Amino acid sequence: MQESGCEPNEATYRYLLRGYLKNNRYDDVAMLLHSMDGSGYYLDPVTTALLRDAKAAGSLDTTMSMLIGKLARKMTISPQASLASLYSC
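Predicted structure:
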């Protein structure tokens, strides 16, 4: 994907994570989370919920849980969301 000049985005990562979790490919989940962290991506609310459910099911170990927490803390409010909150008053 990246070799052809097409960079992954949050949706790409989410779909890959969902497939890896569904097929019990936890090493690939860990690799993808590290790749996301190295690329500056964060977990959006939908992906966070997906990983939270996997953790609750006992599918993720402590190391992955710590990385998930790190990526989730990177979430920020987008400028569009901030502007929308100003006009909602």
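Summary: The first helix runs from residue 10 to 22.
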